[in-house]
Amino acid sequence: MENIILTLLLFFILMAFLFQISKRNNLNKLVQSFLILSLFWIFSIEIKSSADWDAYVLLFENKGANIDFFFKFLSSAFKNIGLQFEQLYQFHIILISLLFINFIRKVNNSIFLVFGIYAILYFVPITNQIRYYLAFSLFLNGCYYLYVDKKNKLSLVVFTLAVLSHSAILGLLLFVVLNKFSKKIGYIKVLIITSLSLLGISFFLQVIGVVSYLDKYAVYFSKESASSFLGGLFNIFPYIILLTLIYYNYQKTIKRNIFFKNDLLYLLLYKLSMYTIIFIPISFYFQVLSHRYVIPFVIVWVCLYLYPFQYSKNQVKSLQAMWLTLFVFFLLFFYNYFLSEYVFGEVSSYLEQFEDSYNSIPYFK
Questions:
Q1: Which of 74-83, 134-143, 222-231, 327-336 has the lowest mean pLDDT?
Q2: Residue 34 three-state SS
Q3: What is the DSSP letter of 49?
Q4: pTM for the complete prediction?
Q5: Residue 286 pairs with which residues in a beta bridge?
Q6: Mean confidence (pLDDT) of the chain
Q7: What is the enclosing helix (H) or strand (E) of 140?
Q8: What does the buried/exposed string (b/e) look like for 220-244 if buried means 16 or more CB atoms within 10 Å of the residue's CB?
Q9: Model pLDDT for residues 302-338, shown as the tens digit of each residue
Q10: Could you give the C-alpha distances from 142 to 91, 250, 300, in angstroms and in order?
Q11: Which of 297, 301, 12, 264 is nearest to 172 (CA)?
Q12: Contacts of 243 (CB under 8 A, 6+ apart)
């Protein structure tokens, strides 16, 4: 397994470098998209086992299951034409990856680098939590259509599909509300106030004992989902560091170049990145929230950092940005897949689940 991972990483670095130094045009973007999608599909589309696989099969077969509308609708449609859950899973994998690529290509030229980093770091949750990542990829595209393309009706349709795919995405649609009403107070101040309010409300709900009445949302605030402060810190700490660095890099960039201060797309990436501030304090105690509302945004953080360099005529600076991005990627990769073995003497759940999924693919046996 180690040799396979090492070979993949070396190939990924080589191709990311070649794409970085090559001429950027539509053909280049098409080749980047085709190659990274092909690689992702090779390692994901024929998966036959994951942490939630059996649960998904039961939901697929049970018409009366308490599940979000879109998954129930697709399950019924696939069964009506004689297909099984394996085909529905493949449909999700293809749609999720295409939606992510569609978002990346609209905001960044480094499609292979950005999606490659994201897919490697979070291969396990992307291929396991298919309903949520479908909703999340729809949400990102909806934000682009709303704030950059100014297509209000299209964005409404996409946001609706996101909510129907996974109701937890409602926690992200608060972004639209806060963004609208934060102009007078200041965006960061509003996020901090909302973050502390959410933390206070969650503890209040536990104290008065009404968490169980929150239906499917109760899992996020239940005692069973709670973790120790140190456990939460271990889970969220690298992302706090990254978000802090991204914040100061953005401030430095807009001071140096007024063009980026008035760039709608750059501002959207910044606001989406900072939105995760809301969920960081509460993630110290409820790790599941960080996996829903903080960690998935790494794809946006990478796009935000690399965004100014696609306008730079200095090839050296662009390459430096790429190597720095890859350096941080390797730190996170080690953190996700191997650090727990060195610190706690336990194999990372990411690595275990990756091996389980990899070994379930017929042509890799």
A1: 222-231
A2: helix
A3: -
A4: 0.92
A5: 226
A6: 89
A7: helix 130-147
A8: bbbeeeebeeeebebbbebbbebbe
A9: 999 999 998 887 888 889 999 999 999 999 999 989 8
A10: 20, 23, 14
A11: 297
A12: 273, 274, 276, 277, 280, 301
Which residue is listed with tokens 């120790």?
A: 228
Residue 137 CA: distances (Å) to CA of 97, 130, 321: 8, 10, 25
Q: How many helices (H) and strands (E) does the chain have?
A: 21, 0
The length of the chain, given as a count of residues: 365
Tell me the DSSP string of 235-289.
Answer: HHHHHHHHHHHHHHHHHHHHHH-HHHHT-HHHHHHHHHHHHGGGGHHHHTTBHHH
Give the type of residue at 114: V
Could you read off the pLDDT of 200-257 as tens digits, one per residue? 887 776 666 554 544 554 444 444 444 566 777 778 899 999 999 999 999 999 999 8
> Cα 306–337–319 angle (5° rounding)?
25
Residue 9 has pLDDT above 50, yes or no: yes
297 DSSP assignment = G
**DSSP 8-state symbol, 222:** S
Direct distance between the N- and C-terminal alpha carbons of the chain, in angstroms, rounded to an integer = 12
